[in-house]
Amino acid sequence: MASKLDTLEHWVNDVAAMTRPATIHWCDGSDTEYRALVQLMLQNGDLIELNQQTHPGCYLHRSSPSDVARVEHLTFVCTGDQADAGPNNHWMAPAEAHTKIDALFDGCMEGRTMYVIPYCMGPIDSPLSRCGVEITDSPYVVANMRTMTRMGAAALARIEREGSFVKGLHSTGELDPERRFIMHFPEELTIKSYGSGYGGNALLGKKCHALRIASYQARSEGWLAEHMLIVGIENPQGQTHYIAAAFPSACGKTNLAMLIPPEGYRKDGWRVWTIGDDICWMRPGEDGRLYAINPEAGFFGVAPGTSRNSNPNALASIARDTIFTNVAVTADNQPWWEGLPGTPVTDWQGRPYDPANGPAAHPNSRFTVSAKQCPTWSPKAEDARGVPISAIVFGGRRPSLLPLVMEARDWTHGVLMGAAMGSETTAAATGAVGVLRRDSMAMKPFCGYHYGDYFAHWLSFDKAGSRLPKVFHVNWFRKGKDGKFLWPGFGENLRVLEWMIARVEGKARGMETPIGILPANGELKMDGVDMPRETLAELLEVDTQGWQTELHAIGEYLDSFRPRLPARLRQEQQRVAQALDTPRKAANA
Ligand code: SAT
Ligand code: MN
């Protein structure tokens, strides 16, 4: 009988015939293999050793200055029918896309090693997990995939058992932005990426598989693949609620996932458990609740701003065995970025640091570290069943209008809140920074199919027997007239999470408004926070006129997904718009 690995071997042979590598290396994920890869990269300049006294096992990678972020304009979803990719994706016909990118792959690995990386996204024994194989010519990608996924022998064994896996082909190519494509073929469970070594473009298990391809698979299989962190909040009674939260890239998912409770909360016995900081796969369990796993095994976090104040858990995690990408270094060869004490001497491009050249660390510089090194890493993160989700949170960078927190009145309203999400753009993708754009469920760059179908899929979870989580929207980024943030953020965000949990447990009344349920007077615990009453009032105000304009914009945005926009969602938008009009009409009458 033919082994299920035959398909894999055939594919590897086909790829080798096209790319013509000098050697093929099947990755086993062992320590020995990792150490050899590091040695190789230290020799060829892919890695630079950092101070081994202060940062044992830590290395620096400098990418090409034109290859420092995801490239959404070069990222394609290639479905047979263009309509299936939706207006939210760039589309190319599959045959044309294969031809275009295969021409680039032709002979591209000559004289080099081709690495075959079997990996599993999620706990190796979880029915929610999915496997893939990435073929790459980049040892940096192999080293990162080893940290970010369950890579090697165990994954290969699961692939042999199951037979199916996502095929990912990657080559660093010439790093020429003119010869760069990230192509997805969801109908073939295939990814092809050429010309970039940057995380989201090259670590194919991450955005390409765990979000774009997985979201497509999830739709037909009845689950959700989301751009969400997962965090456990344990109250002084020892009960833990798990919260999944969607924010766009570089909006604080890692910080929220590793939150340190304010001192008073710590004294009272509150604890925070980290399950994931970027991706969440959820599926209804037998009890009707949504159960979630983090498909990743590590963090690929934004370095700048990570400090003892903002995220001490992340800082503790990256004190050893970490790969830093595009950070600066100090005189004694320690990694450095804006937000850390000390001074940089060399910038992210390896030049002597000169403030005239901009920040010392690239704003999208990153650390890659195993999740196991996080002091708050939850043992439940390895649970094959996943964790039950009590609340789903949406949020973005909104300098005005959006209140600190609001709760959806039901699932449909929650889906509308997620669909309507907007955020100012960040350095995680190339292009202008600080421009407001709609980013439904923080999935704009990652949803592998038509947003209209995606909204319908979200709505479909609301059915008999389901016990869905409550849905909230938060905004940590509201600014005052002086341009400063109104909310202190970071650890203090626990105050908002505590209110959500009180709502979930039926212990807080809340206050109904046309846009959703807000904390009633006194329900947000503010003791120990030095904040004028007016500031809190501003954070929780409902500006009716501003919201009417917003609802109009949301309606127009939703219409851009016609004819696949679910009518129920547009009706929900109209319901909220009318609720906003009603008090004004009453007042005018
Ligand atoms: O795309 S990455 O995974 O490199 C980082 C991000 O944008 O979230
Ligand atoms: Mn992300």
Record keyword descriptors for this entry.
9-stranded mixed sheet; Phosphoenolpyruvate Carboxykinase, domain 3; Phosphoenolpyruvate Carboxykinase, domain 1; globular; alpha/beta; 589 residues; 2 domains; single chain; binds manganese (II) ion
Question: For the residues shown, what is the average pLDDT?
Answer: 96
How many strand units? 30
Largest sheet: 9 strands, mixed
Number of helices: 17
- The CATH architecture of the largest domain can be given as Alpha-Beta Complex
Reported by name, the CATH topology of the largest domain is Phosphoenolpyruvate Carboxykinase, domain 3
Main structural class: alpha/beta
- Seen as an oligomer or otherwise, the chain set is single chain
The hetero molecules present are: sulfoacetic acid, manganese (II) ion
| Domains (count) | 2
Strand content: 15-25%
Low-confidence stretches are none
Inertia-based shape: globular
Report the top-level CATH class of the largest domain.
Answer: Alpha Beta
Ends apart, CA distance between termini: 80 Å
Rg, rounded, reads: 24 Å
